[in-house]
Amino acid sequence: MKYTYLGPEGTFSEAALLSVPGADDAERIPSVSVPAALAKVRDRSVDAAMVPIENSVEGGVTATLDAIGAGDDLRIVREVLVPIRFVLIGAPGKTLDDVRVVSTHSHAWAQVRGWMDEALPEVDYLPSSSTAAAAVAFLDNEAPGYDAAVCSPIVPEQHPELNLLATDIGDNVNAVTRFVLVTAARNGLPRPEPTGADKTTVVVPLPEDSAGALMGLLEQFAARGVNLSRIESRPTGEALGSYFFSIDAEGHLDNLRMRNALRGLHRVSPGVKFLGSYPRADGKEPLLDTHHSDEAFSRADEWVDNL
Ligand SMILES: O=C(O)C(=O)Cc1ccccc1
After folding, report:
1. What are phi and psi of 260, to 5 degrees?
2. Torsion-angle region of 99 (φ positive above 0: left; ψ -120 to 50: alpha; else: beta)
3. pLDDT score for 193
4. pLDDT value at position 186?
5. Which atom of ligand 1 has the smallest separation from the CA of 11?
6. How far is 22 from 284, CA to CA, in rounded Å?
7. Would you say 6 and 82 are in contact if contact means Cβ atoms under 8 Å apart?
8. Which residues contact 129 (CB under 8 A, 6 or more apart)?
9. Mean pLDDT for each 10-residue chunk of the chain (307 residues)?
10. Ligand 1 centroid vs 151 CA: distance in angstroms?
11. Does the beta carbon of 31 lie inside 6 Å of ligand 1?
């Protein structure tokens, strides 16, 4: 297997990838952005990409949701949860008092704003492509246009020569980011088998000019006893008011309740895209009524077939 991730080395995405069995010995190619990582999957120059999709403080990573949802040629095959801690790295020779401009990934910035308001209330923010990219720029000895970078504690561990100004600067000690491993849809690799604790991700365009359209989508899941663990609306970019929904539902494509829900979704929104069924990182099994079990669906099909 050949992997890519939001790089360079030392990002949270790389930490997520390294938790995948076998990835530490595999070829790992950093990408400069999430779309660039997914492009490598699409053109088959790698087998899989590890990208951030959701965090417990900021919500969905919209760049990832949009990039995976464009086209139905990608599949999520695994999710990984990474606890997030942040440190502040200064430019060489700078102290906390010298910091006027801080650079990091936008999701990291959102998670240290409280600490910044307390410690560095006047500071300006400069976005970077990733946390590690902002920090390792100081290694090049050139002035990168900012005085400090927010990144993972892994970066100063890998580069002890960096100027560590502060540790544990995250506003929420329980912050967790969810990453997904994405492959090409029909790449010949085995699909993740059902484990009993799975998730299915779909992208569903909201049918337009129809009252109760969202209810029409949701009732496809509700009527089959399929619980949702995330639902987010995103603009399609085509016109004001044109939206799709990115949805995670509990269960696997092989569960009859899920197959029936997906059939229903396709009837009300034929543009629905299936982005994969994969094991839940937390192993939590769904609460199921007996009338939503595979046996109950099979018995009902059998009954109708014999009428
Ligand atoms: O920039 C990184 O290190 C990433 O992997 C993206 C990210 C940034 C902040 C929190 C979680 C993931």
Report:
1. -70, -40
2. beta
3. 96
4. 82
5. 3
6. 24
7. no
8. 6, 32, 33, 105
9. 96 97 97 95 95 84 81 90 96 96 95 96 96 95 88 97 97 93 88 96 87 93 96 86 90 97 96 95 92 94 96
10. 8
11. no
* The predicted structure's pLDDT at residue 71: 74
Alpha carbon of 173 to ligand 1 centroid (Å): 16
> Is any ligand 1 atom within 6 A of the Cβ of residue 146?
no
Positive or negative, the CA dihedral 3, 231, 65, 153 is: negative
Residue in this structure with the two tokens 């087998």, named with its chain if needed:
47
Task: Report the chain's mean pLDDT, rounded to a whole number.
Answer: 93
Pocket test for ligand 1, best of 65, 102, 105 (most atoms within 8 A of CB): 105
Q: pLDDT tens for residues 184-232?
A: 998 888 889 999 999 999 999 988 778 899 999 999 999 999 999 999 9
Tokens 């109950």 belong to: 296
| Pocket flag, ligand 1, residue 105 (CB < 6 Å) | yes
Atom nearest to 133 CA in ligand 1? 1
Give the model's pLDDT for residue 57.
Answer: 77
Q: For the complex shown, is ipTM > 0.95?
A: yes
Q: Locate 6 and state its tokens.
A: 């939001």
Work out which ligand 1 atom sits closest to the CA atom of 14.
Answer: 5
Give the domains, in start order, of the chain with CATH numbers. Answer: 1-83+176-189 (3.40.190.10), 87-167 (3.40.190.10), 191-307 (3.30.70.260)
Pocket lining: 84 vs ligand 1, CB cutoff 6 Å: yes
The model carries a pTM of 0.92
Nearest residue to 41 via CA among 19, 67, 60, 65: 67
Half-sphere exposure of 82 (CA within 13 A, CB side): 25
